[in-house]
Amino acid sequence: MKIDFTRLVMRAVLLGTAGFIALACSASTDSDDEDVGVTSDALGEVGCRTAPKSDDQDPATPHLIQNTVFCLGTGISDSTNTLYGSPTCPNQWLVGYGGFSGNATVTADWLDAPPINGTACQNSMIGLATHTLTTSGWVDGGPVFHKGQWSGGVCTFPTVTLTVGSGSWHRASAVAWRHTGSGLTKANVRVRMSRC
Length: 196
Known about the structure:
Layout: H1 5-26, H2 31-41, E1 55-56, E2 61-65, E3 68-72, E4 76-78, E5 93-96, E6 104-110, H3 118-122, E7 125-134, E8 137-147, E9 149-151, E10 154-156, E11 160-164, E12 169-179, E13 184-187, E14 189-194
Parallel strand pairs: 1-5
Antiparallel strand pairs: 2-3, 4-14, 5-12, 6-11, 6-14, 7-8, 7-12, 9-10, 12-13
């Protein structure tokens, strides 16, 4: 029996090409997937290190009063509307927390009413990034994103958390995106920094 290797190779190439074309044609072309990718890239840019801030806060700090530790201050900043951001830190609620030594915890929470169906919930997200100026230069944390979680007919968003260390400047940038079915729109967000 004589094997025609030329025909065998041609068949393999044709089958491989057909498989690749079928895979490419079945790939998602949903524009919402592209929006999520663009949004993910738009959090925590280096421009946020020195951009105009949306708010200034002091982190909540522990104080000892009569042998009991109390956390004084809230360190909380709520976005006042969904028009937050600047040209160098677009689409982000940017909060300045000044300088301190030691660690602090930074959180971001969804502040608006949650989406009311599973698809919108699971395609909506919240994200957080941090920027700390240290003696060695800037240290950026994140970004970290969490999508909505649909369970029992209710949409919830996990708190996004990052830890920052000592520095002369601390900033936290956060964003929340609501999936509307025709794209993504911003939602209000709450940022909190605590040293307690």
